[in-house]
Amino acid sequence: MRIETAAIEGIVAITPPRFGDHRGYFSEVFKDAWFRENVADVTFIQDNESLSAQIGTVRGLHFQIPPFAQGKLVRCLAGRIMDVVVDIREGSPSFGKWLSQELSPETGKQLWIPAGFAHGFATIEPNSVISYKVTAPYSPQHDRGIAWNDPMIGIRWPFDERDMVSSDKDKTLPRLADLPGHFSYSTQQPKD
């Protein structure tokens, strides 16, 4: 598997090799021992999947607070997305900075997002299906987020904000400046 470290410490892009012939291809997309040795020593406890039918659908920016903080390994099974992460670790040199990766089934690229980052995506093609492994179960009481259109973060989405579709919940998320600190960079661990 090919590993690319990102401009923000902790974020890793992984591209599994594919072995193809006239029938198609075969690829090992996840291997626990390899991931633990080369990316992060974590345990994935759940796989999630979502479908976004419309181009310009934005989901996020979401995260969970301790003790249910989640690391995520994200990939796109159909369509194409702009996957986005924002560093929300207090004291991090990249606090409030964002980066994005285009994910699609054509590339097979996956994005590892550890706890301490807000995550979201926008669909570039219709009927985009996203699959992601998580290190903690969903907990409504620990579910949080920040506004995907926070001007202080300044994410450059692939569509004009007026044309993007989001949930009522995501439209009411706070800005990063109004968010209490839940994660600390100095310890690389969630705050208790």
Give the structure's gist in a few sentences.
It is built from two helices and 15 strands.
Can you put this structure into words, describing what you see?
- The protein is mainly beta and 192 residues long.
- It contains two helices and 15 strands.
- A six-stranded antiparallel β-sheet has the order 1-2-11-7-13-5, with no helix packed on it.
- The radius of gyration is 16 Å and the shape is globular.
Name the descriptors.
single chain, 192 residues, mainly beta, six-stranded antiparallel beta sheet, five-stranded antiparallel beta sheet, 2 helices, 6% helix, 38% strand, isomerase, dTDP-4-dehydrorhamnose 3,5-epimerase, RmlC_Cupin_sf, RmlC-like_jellyroll
Most strands sheet: 6 strands, antiparallel
Low-confidence stretches: 187-192
Q: Which whole number gives the mean pLDDT?
A: 93
Order of helices and strands: EEEEHEEEEEEEEEEHE
- Name the structural class: mainly beta
Strand content: 35-45%
DSSP strand tally: 15
| Physical arrangement of strands within the biggest beta sheet | 1-2-11-7-13-5
- Termini gap: 35 Å
Helical content (DSSP H or I, runs of 4+): under 10%
Helical segment tally?
Answer: 2
Rg, Å, rounded? 16 Å
Molecular shape: globular
